[in-house]
Design goal:
heterotrimer, A mainly alpha, B mainly alpha, C mainly alpha, B: mainly alpha, two-stranded antiparallel ribbon, 15 helices, 4 strands, C: mainly alpha, Helix Hairpins, 3 helices, 0% strand
């Protein structure tokens, strides 16, 4: 059951990623990337990372990609695709071949080295309390710094994108 | 195997609550708006003798929308045009998976939590789902290849993402008071009594948070006074102007399901969810046989009263329809209600000698709590409809300035005040 | 069928990262380049969470949180720069932005 779910979500993620880099229209690429991000969120949930799963949908699929799609729509950027030469079929096939090689290589090579089973986890693994405790414990300084980074980013974005009247 | 069956049953149940309240809500909207506007409202559609004061109109609406031509205008972007209504409807229905409708059900040695997905980060899942709901409008506005649709879609999605912030920040106060993000814990925490007599509901401990959350929930459901992006007199119905038939029905139903979801969230976070005020679960289980007698007796009396009313109503409308079958409605409904009353009284008298087993008591408690939850949700749905027909809509810049310049600072003030009060209470108590 | 181990997740992370690198190198549209960078960050997030699960600590989740926050900041700023470039040059093809070339 786990294997079926993993292969399904991994397949959706890879197909979405391939679609994003090979489609001409950046809007379709953006929607394909949203599909990839949602399937990655499902993979996070399979890895018992509940908080990261919700964050992935909330932040990536729900905010960042909406911002990208807004920008494409407001600037009419998908009409620009005619100028670009799309990814040729040979390149796409080559990319697919390298992907397959990487996948098989990783799995064969590393499992021949003998991996341990994953560590035992308790019910609190991946919960918000756990992440919160780490944020306010060992990672307090990066936590404060990241809020400053976000503040700088907000101010920068507003300044850069303001319309000069 | 049994686990999957239980999960399936729970999913079906919550879907039933969402999808059955929704047509009733459409009916209540039309009748409620007519009540507020001092007119009669729809009452003509009938199936055989049943007019049911206009309830059949919802069925007529759905039939009309289903049988309309599913036309795709030639100038639209077909893929996104077809996908948009699905996203607009299914994403919102998926958010019901974390709403609890009763206390944990202990039966046959199992503890079954009464929500479909017992996630640790319960409420954040709903926030994530509402952020995905934006894509339905974005797709619809873009695909329609129509300036008004695009503007409506962009405005609507900008409004939704702007009001997600006050929605989330208003919830932070609730998390601080109830010390958990898990919805079942929050609802169970609302069962305690403050100062011995006041139920510790969210609205009592977080009044400012409640106001902010409710206003943000109105904006999330795209509901007046925040329905500029889809008002028919403003922007020609905004992002669903090019849609007809079942596709428009999916947007329409999606909006009502969003209202039910917002009502469920307000009820769960601020009004005690499934908690019956002043009665804990244990008290309900102990007095279950008394409760059963009261429910059956009151139900029987109610059905009897309704039957008598229907007979009087049947006498009143005789001659209005020229002898057609519609005149028999009162009599038919009266007879049905007499049968129901008879069954309920028979059950009522049967319970006098009955010794209620443990699982029977717990089932009665379950039914009482579910009824309480549904009543509260229905009350809040009525408030949504009431506000819609009482307030004019906001202009777009007023809407945005309210969200960013007034509600977000107020939410921050709410968080700081809540933190101060918790700190002071801890210092005073400990 | 072999049980799913962390090598499967790491292999998927490597594939997604590689596709992201391919997008950055071979596409000329600035938006697609930005989205490929986001894809690379997502692949790295998957890798972090996989190792966190393998080792049983939650440092990986915290790292993922920080990566997401930084990715949000960087995507916002990148799009703001893109909007300015579009306003001045009316193009978002990297080939047309040759002003600083000799």
């Amino acid at each position: 059951m786990t294997a079926v779910l993993f292969y399904f979500f991994a397949g959706v993620a890879v197909i979405g990623a391939l679609a994003m880099v090979s489609l001409r229209n950046p809007l379709s690429g953006a929607f394909a990337l949203v599909g990839t991000m949602v399937s990655l969120a499902a993979l996070f949930a399979m890895l018992n990372a509940e908080f990261v799963f919700i964050l992935q949908i909330l932040v990536y699929a729900g905010a960042i990609m909406v911002l990208v799609i807004f920008t494409i729509m407001l600037l009419n950027l998908d009409k620009q695709e005619l100028k670009e030469v799309p990814v040729s079929r040979m390149r796409l096939l080559g990319m697919g071949a390298v992907c397959a090689l990487l996948a098989v290589g990783f799995i064969r090579v590393f499992s021949h080295f003998g991996s341990e089973p994953p560590a035992f986890i308790d019910a609190e693994f991946g919960s918000i309390e756990g992440v919160g405790r780490m944020m306010l414990g060992p990672y307090l300084y990066p936590f404060e710094v990241i809020s400053l980074v976000l503040l700088v980013a907000i101010v920068g974005v507003v300044l850069l994108a303001k319309r000069v009247v | 195997m049994v686990e999957y069956l239980i999960l399936f049953a729970k999913a079906v149940f919550i879907l039933l609550i969402a999808l059955v309240i929704m047509p009733v809500l459409i009916y209540v909207e039309r009748k409620g708006s007519s009540f507020i506007q001092d007119r009669t409202g729809p009452n003509r559609a009938a199936i055989g003798p049943f007019r049911l004061a206009g309830l059949v109109h919802v069925l007529a609406d759905v039939t009309k929308l289903l049988t309309k031509e599913m036309m795709i205008p030639p100038h639209v972007n077909r893929v996104y045009f077809i996908v948009a209504p699905f996203i607009g409807f299914t994403v919102i229905v998926g958010a019901f998976a974390v709403i609890p409708w009763a206390d944990t059900f202990h039966v046959a040695g199992r503890e079954i939590p009464m929500l479909v997905a017992d996630l640790n980060g319960g409420i954040l899942y709903i926030l994530a789902i509402t952020s995905l709901h934006v894509y339905g409008m974005v797709f619809a506005g873009w695909a329609s290849n129509n300036k008004f649709a695009l503007m409506g879609g962009l405005r609507s999605s900008a409004q939704m993402i702007s009001y997600e912030l006050p929605l989330g920040l208003a919830m932070v106060g609730i998390f601080m008071v109830f010390q958990s993000v898990h919805l079942n814990t929050i609802v169970q925490g609302q069962g305690e009594l403050l100062w011995g007599w006041l139920p510790r509901w969210g609205v009592v401990v977080q009044p400012l948070g409640f106001i902010l959350f409710t206003i943000a929930a109105f904006a999330e459901a795209n509901r007046t006074p925040f329905d500029l992006p889809e008002g028919e007199s403003e922007i020609v119905a905004g992002y669903h102007v090019e849609y007809s038939g079942i596709r428009f029905a999916m947007f329409y139903m999606g909006e009502y399901v969003a209202i039910v979801l917002s009502s469920c969230m307000i009820t769960t976070l601020f009004f005690g969810g499934w908690q019956v005020p002043w009665l804990t679960t244990q008290q309900l289980v102990d007095n279950a046989d008394l409760l059963l007698k009261i429910m059956l007796g009151a139900g029987g009396l109610g059905a009897l009263t309704f039957a008598v009313w229907m007979f009087i109503y049947g006498q009143r409308i005789k001659g209005n329809f020229g002898g057609s079958i519609k005149e028999k409605e009162g009599d038919v409904l009266g007879v049905i209600n007499l049968v129901v009353a008879a069954v309920m009284f028979a059950a009522f008298f049967r319970t006098f000698g009955l010794d209620l087993p443990e699982w029977g008591a717990r089932t009665v408690t379950l039914v009482v709590q579910i009824t309480m939850f549904v009543l509260k949700v229905c009350f809040w749905c009525w408030v949504f409809i009431w506000v819609r027909w009482s307030l004019p809509r906001f202009r777009y810049d007023q809407l945005m300035s309210l969200g960013w310049k007034k509600m977000i600072p107020l939410s921050f003030v709410n968080i700081v005040l809540t933190a101060l009060v918790i700190l002071l209470i801890d210092r005073a108590g400990g | 069928m072999t049980p799913i181990t962390i090598e499967h997740y790491l292999g998927l992370s490597a594939i997604l990262f590689f596709i992201g690198v391919f997008g950055v190198l071979f596409r000329r549209n600035l938006i697609v380049i930005l989205m490929s960078i986001e894809l690379m960050l997502n692949a790295v997030n998957l890798s972090f969470v996989t190792f966190s699960r393998q080792l049983g600590t939650m440092d990986g989740h915290v790292a993922t949180f920080f990566v997401m926050a930084l990715a949000a900041a960087e995507a916002g700023l990148g799009l703001a720069i893109l909007v300015m470039v579009f306003r001045n040059r009316t193009t978002v093809q990297a080939d047309d932005l040759t002003l600083m070339r000799d």
